[in-house]
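Final report, Chapter 2: Outcomes

The project's central promise was a pipeline that accepts a single protein chain and returns its three-dimensional structure in a standardized token representation, suitable for archiving and comparison. That pipeline is now operational. To close this chapter, we reproduce one record exactly as it appears in the project archive, with the input sequence first and the structure output second.
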Amino acid sequence: MGRIRVGIGGWTFAPWRGSFYPQGLPQKRELDYASRHLTSIEINGTYYGSQKPESFAKWRDETPEDFVFAVKGPRFTTNRRVLAEAGDSIERFFASGVMELKEKLGPVNWQFLPTKAFDPADFEGFLQRLPRQVDGRLIRHAVEVRHESFRKPEFVDLARRYGVAVVLSAGGEYPQIADITADFVYARIMGTREEEPAGYDDPSLDLWTDRARTWAAGQAPADLGSVSTQQDAANGRDVFLYVISGCKPRNPAAAVALIERLG
């Protein structure tokens, strides 16, 4: 079985104070608190701009030994007309201080605009520029594509060839691509609702728990379907599942409920 990690996007959000975070908890202690109730967090600030190396080091030191961060790649890298020309931008990102996370650096999520359509040659050029190692540390890459043109076997096979995970976006407005293309799974679920105290009802939480366990066992959940006919089995895969968007105030409760079910 692979390791299953469940978390949220970011840790600074005013409506979480007094609901997820205890009333009166100092804001500077929110990451410390969140990292002891969740098993991973997706850092979103890196998508919008560079962070200081000292910040990455501080986040690393504030969290438990087995905690892992996923990191969004910068929009300056993915929001461009020619992706194959992103090499310098990718290098600057990895030199910006993100490697200060050290063993707590999990997957890097390269998120694309909904207007970015699939261009096979150009997208392969982008994948070719993603480093497999930086400073001797293996790097896991995931791509979050949001245009319907990516829902085709040619894209899935391309991602599989480079060992890059295709982010599963579920419950939102973006195309859902559930194919497994790497040695790990990266899912972002977006269906939390305000009327549910835990974001999802019990059957939905049970369903996502079962799916996560199936992924971790190296299999693909049959109910999610796939774009490509090729499905690789494995002894186990690490799973990174983030509760994102939807009713954002409910997302920490949903993540905690999933962690409790996973035991």
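Archive annotation: The chain has one domain: 4-262.
This record, like all others produced under the grant, will remain available to the consortium after the project formally closes.
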